[in-house]
Every structure is written in structure tokens, then in C-alpha cells.
Design goal:
The chain has helices at 4-11, 15-26, 29-46, 56-72, 110-113, 122-126, 130-136, 141-152, 157-164, 168-185, 197-212, 216-220, 241-251, and strands spanning 223-231, 234-239, 258-265, 268-276, 282-293, 296-303. The protein is of the alpha+beta class and 324 residues long.
């Protein structure tokens, strides 16, 4: 068996990117963390048999990818509400009941995925965008693996074939089918470029201020006319500024109710959300991920799941004392 120190030196630098890979495959940050733990356990147990015929990185990706494919044999795809039904353009529509039994797509903190550093190339951040990860859920497990290994991680076709224990012809065929399926789903990557840092900060500050002051008029100035909002685990979702603002104004915004802490998720601006509790103080409520186009907010994805909040570490902390 290798020493812990030797194994750690060779393998630990790849942990964040392996977590991002498993997240793309599985659509759940919790499942991805479990898969990475399993990957490192398998790698440690088999390290004395590693013959260095490939790089340590490629060897770890082989273990992680196979672990993901095994996990996906017994799991359904993780959708967003927008992947299940058409939106409503009327905020007065009856809201569908929450569906906690559905395994919804989850957001992933940039800090865990290793994409929170401004020096990280744009392509690496784009590979974990919510729209892209949601689109991957449309693919079969094998197509998902081939596309992420080739188009996101830039492994050569022969390397992908080695990782998946298949032929280069099979890799090329799966890649063509995966690209065609994503093309049918529409653009999911190139229209998500963020504005400059100053504009991004102004938008985020304005959104937090409008939300916490329960000011729908201020929100109007921040949202695109075609803005969309979805809120898993609620299947109902909205399109168009009148519907989104109307929904928020009539059903969500209340003074002294919400506290939003800025963070980043999926390479995008995000907010950890707490709601005032009945006994005072604030309790975890969920995570919102914002998609920005130009100088406006194009999509609000509100993951109303308190269980996601601890994943965001320091950003998840908020006072729980009465009166705070």
C-alpha cells in the first residue's frame, strides 16, 4: 500500500476538477461528493498496481467516470422544472404542489468545484453552468461521459476510449449523437457570458436590496423583459417580466423576511437565502442562482431546499438569534 503522504501528493490536486466532473455526470453536488470519496478510496486501494502507463489524472478520471456510470444505472435524470413542462406567463396561475420526491438538479458551489478563482479559464467555468448541466441530463449516461470527457475536459478520442474501455469508433459515434441531442435542446453555453465585474456587482447588490426591502419596482429595472424564474421543488415556473415580478410581489416579497448572502455557484452569481423564523432570527431556506445577460438578470433559479445551504460553507452562515 502507498503511504498516505505519497498518495495525497499525487492525487489531491485533482480533487476539485474530479468533483466538477462527477457533478456534471450526476447533477447532484451531494452525490458527486460521495462519488469522489469512492473514487479516492478505490484509487488508494489500487495505487500499488498503478503502472504509470497513463497519467495519474487520466487514471483518476477513469475510476471516477466508471463510478458515475455505475451510480447512474439505478438513478433517473435530474431535471429542472423547465425541463418538464411549459412555463406560465400569468402570476395568478394556481401553483403546483411541491414535488420533494423528484430528484431535482442541484446547484454546486464554485469554491468546491475549483472555478471560483478569476484566473480560471472561461471554458472551465462554462462547463458547470446550470443550463449546460441541465442539458446534459437529456443524454444517456454513456453519451454524458463521452461529451464531458471530450468537449469539456479535452481528452483525446483515444484517451476517452481507454477511460471507458471501448473503441475510438464507439466514442466518435456517441459524441456525434450527444452533440446532436444538445443541439436539439437549443443553445446552452455561448449565450451565458456574464457582464464585467462592475456591472455584475451592481446587479447583484441591486437585486439583494430590492428583495430584502420587498421593492418590486426596483426589481423591474433589473430584469430582462423575457426573464424566467423556476423554483424546484415546485414544478410551476414563469416567463416574462410581468409574470415574474407579479409572482414575487404577490407571493414572496415581504419586508424583514429575507436575508440574502452573495456567493457563486455553477460559475454564476448566486445567493444563499435565509427566511425569518416564527420565533425570530433566520433559518436556512435555499440557494438562488442568477443568469446574467448584458446588464440585466435573464433567469432566476431558486432552489428552495434548506439542505443545500450548508454546502456553501461560510456563505451559508446567518444569525439565528431572535431580533437579528
Amino acid at each position: 500500500m502507498p503511504s498516505d503522504a505519497e498518495f495525497a501528493v499525487l492525487s489531491e490536486p485533482f480533487r476539485p476538477e474530479l468533483l466538477a466532473h462527477c457533478y456534471r455526470m450526476l447533477g447532484s453536488i451531494h452525490d458527486a461528493e460521495d462519488c469522489v470519496q469512492e473514487t479516492y478510496l478505490r484509487a488508494w486501494r489500487g495505487f500499488d498496481r498503478f503502472e504509470h502507463r497513463s497519467s495519474v489524472r487520466r487514471w483518476l478520471y477513469k475510476i471516477a467516470t466508471m463510478a458515475c456510470l455505475t451510480a447512474l444505472e439505478t438513478r433517473s435524470r435530474r431535471p429542472l422544472p423547465s425541463g418538464l413542462a411549459a412555463p406560465s406567463d400569468d402570476h395568478r396561475v394556481a401553483m403546483a404542489a411541491r414535488e420533494p420526491s423528484v430528484a431535482w438538479l442541484q446547484p454546486a458551489p464554485d469554491a468546491l468545484l475549483g472555478v471560483d478563482d478569476p484566473a480560471v479559464v472561461v471554458a472551465r467555468r462554462t462547463g458547470v453552468r446550470l443550463a449546460f448541466v441541465a442539458a446534459l441530463q437529456l443524454l444517456s449516461a454513456r453519451q454524458r461521459a463521452v461529451l464531458t470527457l471530450r468537449d469539456v475536459l479535452a481528452f483525446r478520442t483515444a484517451e476517452v476510449a481507454g477511460i471507458l474501455d471501448t473503441t475510438t469508433a464507439a466514442v466518435d459515434s456517441a459524441l456525434r449523437r450527444a452533440r446532436a441531442r444538445l443541439a436539439e435542446a437549443g443553445p446552452v453555453r455561448d449565450d451565458l457570458a456574464e457582464p464585467d465585474e462592475e456591472t455584475r456587482r451592481t446587479l447583484l447588490d441591486g437585486y439583494v436590496d430590492a428583495f430584502t426591502r420587498a421593492d418590486p419596482d426596483a426589481l423591474v429595472r433589473l430584469l430582462r423583459a423575457d426573464v424566467e424564474m423556476e423554483m424546484p421543488p415546485t414544478p410551476t415556473w414563469f416567463t416574462g417580466r410581468p409574470a415574474v415580478v407579479g409572482f414575487l410581489a404577490n407571493r414572496v416579497l415581504r419586508r424583514d423576511t429575507w436575508r440574502l448572502v452573495p456567493t457563486r455557484a455553477n460559475g454564476q452569481p448566486a445567493l444563499v437565502v435565509h427566511r425569518r423564523a416564527a420565533g425570530g432570527g433566520y433559518e436556512a431556506y435555499g440557494v438562488q442562482v442568477l443568469t446574467l445577460i448584458g446588464d440585466r438578470i435573464a433567469r432566476i433559479t431558486a432552489f428552495n431546499d434548506p439542505g443545500l445551504v450548508p454546502t456553501f460553507g461560510p456563505a451559508s452562515a446567518w444569525a439565528t438569534r431572535a431580533g437579528d
